[in-house]
Specification:
- The chain has helices at about 1-25, 170-175, 185-214, and strands at about 35-40, 60, 70-90, 100-110, 115-120, 130-150, 160-170.
- With about 210 residues, the chain is an alpha+beta fold.
- It folds into two domains: about 1-25 and about 190-214; about 35-175, Jelly Rolls, CATH 2.60.120.
- Strands 1, 2, 3, 4, 5, 6 and 7 form a seven-stranded antiparallel β-sheet that branches.
- A hairpin with a 6-residue loop joins strand 4 (about 100-110) and strand 5 (about 115-120).
- Helix 1 (about 1-25) packs antiparallel against helix 3.
- It is globular and about 45 Å long.
- The two termini are about 15 Å apart.
- It binds calcium ion.
- Calcium ion binds next to strand 7.
């Protein structure tokens, strides 16, 4: 009976430690209503902040010209430091053959030094759906920039609504890691859970060995 209880305890610990990152993945949108800028805009209505106003279908941002002959980008100032986990983008137009939208996401703590957090410059980002969810990790971020590197000459770089998910950076110590962290993998974020899982497995092994000796 005791052996069974020990096994159940160890399994529960291991399962719980693996479950924590999954639960924490549901970060809130941190970009709605923030200050956005862009390389240009189609007109007074299609401004950069219309892409993060919470209106998913009625408003959006659009570049002035179709294609990407000119540098085309959209950026936001989150106002303070965040640890980000990805984004959801509701494109304006994904219909029609030959649509091939390519872009990357860059992040910065100071609006000067930028790091690529997501690279979709070598593949069509539209796929089959109008709304795309992308998972990426970047810590200590205040500025986020979407650079559109390739858009068909008959289409505008444009989206109706963008959500960027994350949490406020927890501590000053975390901020000091910004220069060395890898925003593409976010490996540092999962280390505590791997350690917890390892401890649970270790304790389980010791307990089982003790039981065998009895
Ligand atoms: Ca909108």
């Amino acid at each position: 009976m005791r052996k069974k209880l020990i096994s159940v305890f160890c399994f529960t610990m291991l399962f719980a430690s693996l479950l924590v990152p999954i639960v924490q993945a549901a970060d809130p949108d941190v970009v709605k209503g923030k200050t956005a800028t862009a390389s240009d805009q189609y007109d007074a209505v299609w401004g950069p902040e219309a892409g993060i106003d919470g209106d998913n279908v009625g408003t959006g941002w659009s570049a002035l010209n179709p294609g990407t002959k000119d540098p085309t980008w959209w950026a936001v100032d989150l106002g303070e430091s965040y640890d980000l986990s990805g984004h959801e983008i509701n494109w304006y137009d994904t219909k029609g053959a030959g649509n091939d939208f390519r872009y990357n996401v860059e992040v910065s703590a100071d609006n000067k030094n930028w790091t690529v957090a997501l690279d979709r410059t070598t593949e069509n980002s539209l796929k089959a759906d109008q709304i795309q969810n992308e998972t990426w990790k970047a810590n200590n971020v205040r500025y986020v920039r979407f650079n559109f590197t390739s858009v068909p000459d008959t289409k505008w770089a444009s989206f109706l609504e963008l959500k960027i998910f994350g949490q406020k950076t927890a501590s000053a110590a975390a901020t000091s890691d910004s220069a060395t962290s890898n925003p593409k993998t976010g490996d540092a974020g999962i280390i505590p859970y791997l350690i917890l899982a390892g401890v649970a497995a270790f304790v389980g092994t010791i307990m089982m060995r003790k039981k065998k000796r009895i």
